Amino acid sequence: MSPSGLHLAMLRTAALLVGEQQRAEWLAEWTSELWHAGHEPHGANLTAFCLGAFRDAFWLRSNAPLPRSYGVLHLDVPSEPVASQSLPEFGVPFLQSPARCLSLLSVMAMVSVSAAFLLPTARNLILPSPYPDARNLVLVTSNAMGSADRANGLLDPYASVSVDEFRFLRKHADMAFYLATHVQIGHTNLFVARTSPDLFRLLSIRIPAAGEHRTSFVLTQAAWRRYFKSEPGIVGSTVNVAGKPAVVTGILAASQWTLPAKVDGWLLEDDAAFAALPADAEGFAVGRLPRPVAGFSSLSLAARHGAEPFISLVLEFLFGCLLVRVRTPFSLGHYPQNMRPGRWLFLTAKLALVLPIVIFGALDLGSLGSSISDIALLIAALGGMFAMGWALADQRRRCPVCLRILANPVRIGQSSRMLLEWHGTELVCLRGHGLLHIPERPAIWFTTQQWMDLDSSWSGLFSDRATSHSLVR
Amino acid sequence: MPVELKLSHTAAMILKAIDAGHIYGFGVMEVTGLPSGTVYPAMRRLERDDLIKSRWEKQSIADAEQRPPRKYYGLTASGRATLQASEKRYPLLARLIPIMEEEKV
Question: Which residue in A264, A259, A256, A260 sits closest to A239, CA to CA?
Fold first, then answer.
């Protein structure tokens, strides 16, 4: 039986299944084989022969060279030649390995914490208060204008206590007052705190007296370097501050001033000069307040350092975590053996690491200015939301056994046929631990993603880096 | 570390047929009795796994014999090693496939 036009047409039709790059050679081989089969002396069933071409073409189509992926099933996806049989790494997500994921999170947490120690404003918040009597000293704020809401230890309160209110407070307690204002010193405009004479006494900062009836002026180290060019003989000299002479009595290191308002210096005025301040000028009151005073809030200076300022950041973080529920449920899906401790430990470790990343990251970004800004709280809330969302999403896409990210997603079913079939995505654990089915649309009988364990009998289907390779028919 | 291959009986039979000198697809079909839809995909898998390699016959030879050129298959070194291992696993394999010395390339 000689090859007919019908047989050639069959081969050409089958060739359409073959990829374009292989089609010409494939057709040439089958055409040649058909010719030889047709000229066999004892004859051959050429139609059956040509039907086999469809299977061959379909196999080639199914096993066309794919981009190197990180998982192969021997039945379906072509693997590397035997001589170099090892799983290619190209395309593997960096965080696929749970150890690598935790390592990266640890590095990020360390960077975040280290940055907080490098930024002066954030560092002041973390380190203990420089004032020995910080536990007994309070920063008083007026309840007006919502200033009390900011008295949380993290954010600096607004200058809310007027000179008049301070005079009232001083009758009841040992108090000091300061207000920050711009003053002219020579040709330079400096941001200076005009303070009552006992501010540094309360803070236990020893400053030499300027002398009777003379105003004392204390510079910050930064201002001394910047405006006075690190002049060594500055202490003891007299400078003209806002038209009045003042004796420079000291230079204060930045770490010694952690109260609100980042100033260049302090003008310690005597009572007479202080009495001349306008009654409604607002500043900050610091001192020992034995009992609460109506209309004022007080915050211990010790509470502005250490762990306490972080409470508001952590609360914002937790609030952000709860906001995740708006977008996605907290449920991780249906797993037959839900009590795999490793899986929960991994989730806990991730959450434990993203907490410092977000909290200290928020602190770092919020303290880029002269004081911690409101943006730190916003970042903590948003960071909590994204971190929690990521931790849950990452957990959902991992194998519950080996904790590696699942791969080879396959779309299954059709959205129009959901009565008896499920429609969604199937992912596989490359180590053969199981399959994850994620419904495209939740149905009553398939509301959430479901994990299906594969027992060891399936292991032959999965390639392994160093195990045997089975060739199947 | 060399990877040990475990061939199915069909794959081993095809490998043995090629080793015996049946070096093109239809020849393998004839000697093994397997249909074309089994033989050709299996040969592609064997080639993919570097157990066999293929080459096209020279056009001049085919022209001289007034026929289209054929695609010939031969065993690679790893294919030969795998076949030896398979012959231990399938002792009757050698008896199933007659050797065609004259067609060996």
Answer: A264
